[in-house]
Amino acid sequence: MKKRGFTVVELMTTFVLISVIATLLIKLTISLKELYISGDMKTTLLAKQGTLTDKLKNDLNNNVLTEMNSCGNNCITFVYNTGSKNLKVDKTNKIITYDNYAIKLGKENSFGDIYINKDDYDIGSIVKINISIKNKLLKGDYGINIVHQINDTTTFDSNILTTFNK
Amino acid sequence: MKKKSKGFMLLETLVVSTFIISTLIYLYIQFINLKKSYDISFRYDTIPGLYNLKEVDKFINTNYGYADFINNTDIITNGYTEIYNNNECNINFFSNNNNYCEKLMTSIGAKTILLAKIDLTTTKNNLKNNNPYSNNLYLYIKSINYTTNLNTYLLIIEYNDNTFSNIKIEKEEVN
């Protein structure tokens, strides 16, 4: 009798090997897709974080900060020797505004802790402005975390401490 | 009469499959390395990290100056000296304003801060043999490579969120 086609052993071996190859390929494809998506999200968030941090720190470092006042819930007015600028967080619409620059967060992002701290010492004060931004698909915080040292001559409206977290 | 064989032999299947699997494993290893480098690119020298480290520089420069730090025995022998680690500012330098120092470091989220010579050869060798800090910090320091200028130093920081930054301390600041 003439034999045709594969034997059972050949078929099984081939099947097992193809399964291994397919699993590896699928894993690789999924990882590449995740890498692409997370990379895109991270880049967008970090660009926004960087731009806002850059603008705030440039103003804080290059001007004399004379006053910090509350301008409502989640809003601070920085009074510099060159003029005033507001930092405002709109939690509902997911928008952060500083002066005339605004960033809008995507729907997959949410705000975490928003607060401002001020600690006074003999040699000056340490002000920390924290606007935490989380992404449900990414680990870590992509928000604003600014620490600035000010001297005692800066007038600080203590109302900020209670209104910058509502 | 010669036996006519049809289909693949087991040996043929094995050879081809081994070749394909090897290629895929090689691709996977390359991908893992790429992913590692990609992750690192988001953790090294971040913008907030650099600005917050600049605040440490401002604190040291305004209140102490760098002369005592760079003349310290540690930096001369080991290539680096510790500024902050384990939630404590180095008491040898910050006996004055220690509370302020610790509050500043906590506020910026610092885990470890070192001041090192810009030529990191000695620092890298010492940390390779005896590393009291995290392995990630060692890997970060290993990745730093500046053109040597003997009069320049580096402030190197590891943050609690596993990000890292460094800034140069310019010659005029040191003197």
Description:
The complex is a heterodimer of chains A (166) and B (175). Chain A has helices spanning 8-62, 159-163; strands spanning 65-70, 75-80, 83-90, 95-98, 101-104, 109-121, 124-135, 144-150, 155-156. Chain A has 166 residues and is of the alpha+beta class. The mean pLDDT of chain A is 87. By secondary structure, chain B is an alpha+beta fold. Chain B folds into two domains: 8-43; 45-174, no CATH class. The model of chain B has no long low-confidence stretch (mean pLDDT 87). The chains are: A alpha+beta (166), B alpha+beta (175). The A-B interface holds A 3-6, 9-10, 13-14, 17-18, 20-21, 24-25, 27-28, 31-32, 35, 39, 42, 46, 49-50, 53-54, 57, 117, 119, 121-124, 126, 128, 140-141, 144-149 and B 6-10, 13-14, 17, 20-21, 24-25, 27-28, 31, 35, 38, 42, 46-48, 51-52, 55, 58-59, 63, 97, 99-100, 103-104, 107-109, 161.
**Could you give the order of strands across the largest sheet of chain A?**
5-4-3-2-1-9
Count of domain modules of chain B: 2
Taking the alpha carbons of the first and last residues of chain A, their distance comes to 86 Å
- Tell me the overall shape of chain A: rod-shaped
- Count of structural domains of chain A: 1
- SSE string of chain A, helix = H, strand = E? HEEEEEEEEEH
Number of helices of chain B: 8
Which class of secondary structure composition applies to the elements of chain A? alpha+beta
Helix content of chain B: 40-55%
Could you tell me how far the N terminus lies from the C terminus of chain B, measured between alpha carbons in angstroms? 96 Å
Unreliable stretches of chain A: none
